[in-house]
Design brief:
This protein is mainly α and about 180 residues long. The chain is built from ten helices and two strands. It is globular.
């Protein structure tokens, strides 16, 4: 199956932007959406905020590929679903996005892992409906957070844009890829 990682990453980076260190953001110093904690885990164990600020896009891309895209088996998910899950995982963690994907597919939420069963199920449902379910549940979750008053306008816009783009990806995908 053809990977649309680069396309999805490019779209994600439009939302994540550059360096930030907002006092209300529990992620702390962040660049390209990569937190200092992840930078320390994947690149430099004793990284400082200055190191995060100097992070190269290629370093962020490696982290995104391994921690979010590959971990959620996005290359194996239908186009549109993979973007919605990738962006959700980056924004709220892959444990949450994995559970939401399972719930939206009507599977047990006893794990957040994207297993063979999850991948197969994702190819047997209406991808457009799946994208809508994922994005609607995501927005509901974000609205429940205490930081919604600070970040809500941006989060709401982001989820609407992800939903719209993911639906377009699902519609533009070849029929064979949707019915595998």
């Amino acid at each position: 199956m053809h990977s649309n990682f680069d396309t999805c990453l490019s779209l994600l980076l439009e939302h994540e932007g550059g360096y930030t260190n907002h006092p209300s953001d529990p992620g702390g110093p962040t660049n390209f959406g990569i937190t200092i904690e992840d930078y320390r885990r994947y690149v430099k164990v004793n990284a400082t905020a200055a190191d995060v600020r100097r992070m190269k896009l290629d370093e962020a891309k490696i982290i995104y590929r391994e921690k979010y895209w590959d971990a959620q088996r996005c290359d194996e998910l239908p186009p549109g679903t993979n973007y919605a899950i990738f962006d959700y995982g980056v924004n709220s963690g892959i444990r949450r996005s994995g559970k939401v994907l399972r719930r939206a597919l009507g599977l047990p939420v006893d794990s957040s892992d994207v297993t063979d069963v999850v991948v197969t199920a994702a190819h047997t449902v209406d991808v457009k409906a799946l994208v809508v379910d994922i994005c609607d549940e995501r927005l509901h979750f974000l609205r429940s957070l205490k930081t919604w008053p600070v970040f809500g306008a941006g989060w709401g816009r982001r989820v609407r844009e992800v939903k719209s783009t993911a639906l377009k990806m699902a519609l533009d995908a070849p029929t064979m890829a949707r019915n595998q």
